[in-house]
Design a protein that fits this description.
mainly alpha, rod-shaped, transmembrane helix, membrane, 1 helix
């Protein structure tokens, strides 16, 4: 094999790894949230507490 073929194979493998990593990170569960609908990520700073 010549050097151009090796470079193309390496570049293709790197691209497959990159795309696979993006897909894996988009479907894997997030580690930051608790996942129990407690609304810990919601900003309540603009809500008036006097409303009933």
């Amino acid at each position: 094999m010549d050097i151009q073929t090796i470079l193309v194979i390496l570049l293709f493998a790197a691209a497959v790894f990159y795309v696979g990593r993006i897909v894996y990170r988009s479907v894997s569960p997030k580690k930051g949230g608790c996942g129990s609908n407690c609304k810990c990520g919601v900003d309540f700073s603009n809500i008036n507490p006097d409303k009933k």
